[in-house]
């Protein structure tokens, strides 16, 4: 099994019938690059920049951030690296910001919402990212976007940061792909509209499940309801992928679901373009994808979508997975 996976490492990420997909990794620090290199992932589908902000007593400076982002890009030459802007607040607290406690932090001032209220923090990060952009294939992604206004507002701040740097004669790329996390049901429902303006989507199933099924992702008592195979979640996922393709854009997934081999056939059938997961899952998922034929996966996905419960869908996918292992 080990040997098989080692052999898979050097082979292209594509289905049995040759449809190319990307199998990328999720990381949060430059120190994790080695793990990504070890499994020869196609890139970073999610760099959680909040880790650069954590474990310290004050905000990282523009220079500190620039160095961290540059180090990641230089460690993965020619590979796509998607940097998600600060996703703090909610369950990811930064004590030094001194934010007042909220009754419902998951529904509160987190991610881009926090960045819009602290534009100093956001601007500094965007400058650091743009400065790093000249060192590799940098993509920028905004978390917790609920609709078009928020995307436009974030993008306009990015443009301001770029104009500022250009005026100051500081090197940065004039064009960087900009996408959003789809992790709020409103964004999934509006995917056709959002797809007109974003460069790509990445589905965050961890939060998408939390908000779709109304289960606090940190609450053990209702954890049994937290399931990305819930048919409502699957409908949203399939809708997002289809909407992006209709607009000539691509969709990735960086939530836990992307690294679950039980989901691989289904997501391939939906047409997912990029799977991003913890490095440990990359080779197994890649091995599976290389055995799947697109038309077969589409047929299985269609069957799965006729089922009404997560349990039935899981049982069905378990059966299908046997065929490929
Ligand atoms: C997600 O919500 O699925 C996601 C990838 O982001 P995080 O787990 O960091 O909230
Ligand atoms: Mg999230």
Distance between the termini: 11 Å
The rounded Rg comes to 19 Å
Shape descriptor reads globular
Q: What is the count of helical runs?
A: 15
* Beta strand count: 8
Largest sheet: 8 strands, parallel, barrel
Strands in their spatial order, largest beta sheet: 1-2-3-4-5-6-7-8
Query: What fraction, in percent, of the residue positions are helical?
Result: 40-55%
- Could you say which small molecules are bound to this protein? phosphoenolpyruvate, magnesium ion
Structural class: alpha/beta
Low-confidence spans = none
Mean residue pLDDT: 97
The H-and-E topology, N to C, reads as HEHEHHEHHEHEHHEHHEHEHHH
What percentage of the residues does DSSP assign to strands (E)?
A: 5-15%
Structure description:
There is one protein chain. The chain is α/β, with parallel strands linked by helices and 325 residues long. Helix content is 46%, strand content 12%. The protein is built from 15 helices and eight strands. Strands 1-2-3-4-5-6-7-8 form an eight-stranded parallel barrel, surrounded by four helices. Helix 2 links the parallel strand 1 and strand 2. The chain is globular. It binds phosphoenolpyruvate (PEP) and magnesium ion. Phosphoenolpyruvate (PEP) binds next to strand 2 and helix 10.
């Amino acid at each position: 099994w080990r040997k098989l996976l080692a052999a898979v490492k050097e082979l292209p990420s594509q289905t049995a019938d040759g449809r190319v997909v990307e199998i990328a990794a999720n990381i949060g620090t430059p120190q994790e690059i080695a793990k990504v290199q070890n499994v020869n992932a196609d890139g970073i589908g999610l760099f959680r920049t909040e880790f650069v902000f954590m474990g310290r007593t004050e905000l990282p400076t523009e220079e500190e951030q620039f160095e961290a982002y540059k180090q990641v890009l230089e460690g993965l030459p020619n590979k796509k690296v998607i940097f998600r802007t600060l996703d703090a607040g909610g369950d990811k607290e930064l004590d030094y910001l001194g934010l007042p406690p909220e009754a419902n932090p998951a529904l509160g001032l987190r991610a881009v919402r926090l960045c819009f209220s602290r534009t100093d923090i956001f601007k500094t990060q965007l400058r650091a990212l743009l400065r790093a952009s000249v060192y590799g294939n940098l993509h920028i992604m905004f978390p917790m976007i609920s609709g078009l206004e928020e995307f436009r507002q974030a993008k306009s701040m990015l443009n301001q940061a770029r104009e500022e740097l250009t005026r100051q004669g500081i090197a940065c790329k004039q064009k960087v792909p900009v996408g959003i996390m789809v992790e709020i049901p409103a964004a999934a429902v509006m995917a056709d509209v959002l797809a007109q303006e974003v460069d790509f989507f990445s589905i965050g199933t961890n939060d998408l499940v939390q908000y779709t099924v109304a289960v606090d992702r940190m609450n053990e008592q209702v954890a049994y309801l937290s399931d990305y195979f819930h048919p409502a979640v699957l409908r949203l996922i399939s809708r997002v992928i289809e909407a992006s393709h209709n607009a000539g854009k691509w969709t990735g997934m960086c939530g836990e679901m992307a690294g679950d081999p039980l989901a691989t056939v289904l997501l391939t059938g939906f047409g997912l373009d990029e799977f991003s997961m913890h490095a440990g899952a990359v080779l197994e998922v890649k091995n599976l994808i290389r055995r799947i034929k697109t038309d077969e996966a589409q047929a299985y996905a269609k069957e799965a979508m006729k089922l009404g419960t997560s349990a039935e869908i899981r049982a069905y996918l378990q059966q299908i997975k046997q065929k490929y292992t």
